[in-house]
Amino acid sequence: MMKLNQKEIDKLEFKFKINLINSITGIKPGNLIGTVDKEGNENLAIFSSVFHLGSNPPLIAFVTRPSQNIPRHTLQNILETESYTINHVVSNKIVNAHLTSAKFEKEVSEFEACNLTPEYHSNVVAPFVRESKIQIGMTLEDIMDVKANKTKIVIGRVNFINIKDDSVFDDQGNINLAQAQSTGISGLHSYYAFQQLATLPIAQADNIAIPEKS
């Protein structure tokens, strides 16, 4: 058993603390964010921090780490073009996707270096990942600075959706992530497949059946 207060957490060995805090929140979506600069240099990077921010208007956000000392090509390209793509990591490409986290020079395309295929769609400047079954085109809306750790929250509006397999979504717009072969990430380098356990009706306070404690 492990029980830690704030002082004990702060004193943990650095690598142990990084792994613990990164994985303690559970499985997060695995996504590849595709960008391109004005010179045509493509970039692809894996993120586990993509999250839904709102449906009307359709907004999705992600967190990018501090850029004071290490160049963040994804952020630089988004600031240049205001365009980027979000692509689900599929289960048969997790190694390729993971390798995009390596520190490549700006002129090196992670698509080529990690054996993934860029794909372009009309009216979206940034490249998509052809191997992904769910592709989302984004336009930059806002960037919020997080003072606590100097990260940034990049907020974008969905301007394009491409779901390559009709069996992945139902007539209500619900997406089956298991059918899409989408994957999740825990910590910095552990990958998980999704299994759909149930689809439950919207909870109504005046009409609920609460399961008994086990």
UniProtKB/TrEMBL annotation:
**Keywords, in A-Z order:** Flavoprotein, FMN
One Pfam family matching this protein: Flavin_Reduct
Task: Identify which cofactors the protein needs according to its UniProt entry.
Answer: FMN
Keyword Kinase annotated: no
- Flavin reductase like domain sequence ranges: 32-166
InterPro entries recorded for this chain? Flavin_Rdtase-like_dom, Split_barrel_FMN-bd
Q: Does the keyword Flavoprotein apply?
A: yes
- Molecular functions (GO terms): FMN binding; oxidoreductase activity, acting on the CH-NH group of donors, NAD or NADP as acceptor
Matching entries from PANTHER family are given as: FLAVIN REDUCTASE LIKE DOMAIN-CONTAINING PROTEIN (PTHR33798:SF5), FLAVOPROTEIN OXYGENASE (PTHR33798)
State the similarity comment.
Answer: Belongs to the flavoredoxin family.
What's the protein called, per UniProt? Answer: Flavin oxidoreductase
